[in-house]
Amino acid sequence: MKIYDVIILTESRYLNPTKVDIYSKNVLDEDNYVKVALEKIGLKVGRLSWYDATFNWSTTKYILFRTTWDYFDRYDEFSKWLNNVSKQTILLNSEAIIRWNIDKHYLQDLQKKEVPICESYFVETTEKSSLQELATKHQLNEFVLKPCVSGGGRHTYRINPQNTPDHETIFKKLIAKEALILQPFQHNIVKKGEISLILINGKFTHAVLKIAKKGDFRVQDDFGGSVHNYTPTQPEINFAEKAIKACNELPIYARVDVFTDNNNNLALAELELIEPELWFRNNPKAADELAKGIQKLINQKAV
Predict the structure, then answer these.
(1) Distance separating alpha carbons of residues 181 and 290, to the nearest angstrom
(2) Which pick of 23, 130, 184, 204 has the fewest CB atoms within 10 Å?
């Protein structure tokens, strides 16, 4: 028996925080916009931590990934849970698209479908070269190193000829356990920022511009980055919608992060399909559109 229509997924620190700062307030507000939108159309909704071992996941029709922002720190546990829960209910986005999107190798798939991506060099765990040798091989002067499975700026380093030796140890430690990606440092992200375009049910709804704080290159608010309302150009919207259409299936929600690369061309930084911040607080109507999409899925399943 299905008790819930939708369970909104978070993590334990954002379930019922005893102390609410600006950051956690945004999390609670974002999840609440979705919850209210779903309840307005008559759906029964709950909100739980993804690793709640006491909940019977088969009692909900759908689970909606929203603020599960510790999955990459607990990847093995998350992967096992994902495999188990996908047999009990329907995931939004689907398990297939989550597993595809969780690893940045997906960028290669999009590139093959003619979606321009950030210039990227993938380093597998079998690699024996040093960081300096790889930089020389790929003619990288200033570049960024990060894991293929990551989020929130985890193990993301800005590297140049002067500090390459300082990063050899962490590189060796990381590559022994997980695949990494090297990308030329993109100067326009610092100068102009990074654009996040939100698409619900395959259609553009709103966008924001993320700007790194002075002296940093990471646009995430975890590192002092700021977020601003942004009106994208039609080519930027077209780019985002093309990226979504290149997926093996249409995600019900997506965030397409784009920037102007070092050659002054529009390029994809990330395609976020698992638990991206969607800034519903900037456009609450987008939460209503998400709710309509979920209702449509429920109605289709009922036929």
Answers:
(1) 32
(2) 23
Rounded CA separation 303/298 (Å):
9
Own/partner contacts of 151-159, CB < 8 Å, gap of 24 or more, are 151/69, 151/71, 151/72, 152/69, 152/72, 152/220, 152/222, 153/218, 153/220, 153/222, 153/223, 154/72, 154/73, 156/218, 158/185, 158/217, 159/131, 159/135
User: For residue 223, is pLDDT > 60?
Assistant: no
* CATH number of the structural domain 106-116+188-272: 3.30.470.20
Q: Do domains 106-116+188-272 and 121-185 have the same CATH topology?
A: no
Mean predicted confidence (pLDDT) in 195-224? 80
Query: How large is the average pLDDT for residues 213-217?
Result: 62
Q: Give the residue-averaged pLDDT of 38-66.
A: 97
In the chain, where the domains are located: 4-98+282-302, 106-116+188-272, 121-185
Kindly state the tokens that stand for 241: 């919608």
The answer, as to whether pTM is greater than 0.85, is: yes
Give the architecture (CATH level 2) of 4-98+282-302: 3-Layer(aba) Sandwich (3.40)
